[in-house]
Amino acid sequence: MSPVVRQNIARALRLVLPLSALVLLATIFLVSRGVDPNSAADVADLDPAQMARAPRIASARFAGMTDDATALTISASSVRSAAEAPEAGPLELEFSHPEAVLVFPDASTARFTAKDALLDQKRGVLHARGPVALENSDGFVLELGALNAALDRTRLTGSGGVNGHAPAGDISAEAMELTRNGGADGGYLLAFTGNVRLIYIP
């Protein structure tokens, strides 16, 4: 290719390339539609008005120790204040998809998950609304209608029906209670009440 031809091609490219870029930019602006600020909320499944009225904390985690030395950890996908004026009194927190873990002094554990829960600092209780799934390190896997967890001592009370699996077989009852057994080993006692049925599986 002669030098004259190469120079002509270079001049043509210097003219054509910038014009092509301008055409592309103009096409983008002409073809693109206006941005609807509400469409982002629809895609994200969020309610901006609700978020403004009730701000929340995402991926929250709380940890503490009961008076009888059981470690209690509560985590949730989000937490928000349930009180009208949270600075005016005891905390009332609403948890979304909470998970709580109890670690007893003898290293045994119990954990439960729920759809949502309300922490009432005035009453010293976490009220988990069902379905609530509870399991412990001894092999109990239970589903409950609702569960209350005391914040100052080791006490879980389940209501609304209890169904699940025990190490000996399938079990059902109207209610259950998990407390510290008071022994030197620092374990716990799990008791079922109200029309208790156990289907023994050898």
Protein topology:
Layout: H1 3-31, H2 37-44, H3 48-53, E1 56-65, E2 71-81, E3 92-96, E4 99-103, E5 109-113, E6 116-120, E7 125-136, E8 141-150, E9 155-166, E10 169-173, E11 175-180, E12 188-193, E13 197-200
Antiparallel strand pairs: 1-2, 2-3, 2-4, 3-6, 4-5, 5-7, 6-7, 7-8, 8-9, 9-10, 9-11, 10-13, 11-12
List key phrases describing it.
48% strand, alpha+beta, 3 helices, 202 residues, lipopolysaccharide transport protein A fold, six-stranded antiparallel barrel, 13 strands
Going by helix content, strand content and strand pairing, the class is: alpha+beta
SSE pattern: HHHEEEEEEEEEEEEE
* Strand segment tally: 13
Q: The CATH topology, please? A: lipopolysaccharide transport protein A fold
- How much strand content do the residues show? over 45%
- Total of domains: 1
Identify low-pLDDT runs: 28-35
Percent of residues in helices: 10-25%
Number of helices: 3
What's the rounded overall pLDDT mean? 78
CATH superfamily: Lipopolysaccharide (LPS) transport protein A like domain
Largest sheet: 6 strands, antiparallel, barrel
Adjacency order of strands in the biggest sheet:
2-3-6-7-5-4
As a whole number of angstroms, the C-alpha radius of gyration is: 30 Å
Distance, first to last CA: 91 Å
Characterization of the model:
The chain is α+β, with helices and mostly antiparallel strands and 202 residues long. It has one domain (57-200): Lipopolysaccharide (LPS) transport protein A like domain (lipopolysaccharide transport protein A fold), CATH 2.60.450.10. It is 21% helix and 48% strand. Strands 2-3-6-7-5-4 form a 6-stranded antiparallel beta barrel. β8 (141-150) and β9 form a beta hairpin. The longest helix has 29 residues, at 3-31. The protein is globular and about 90 Å long. It starts with a helix and ends with a strand.
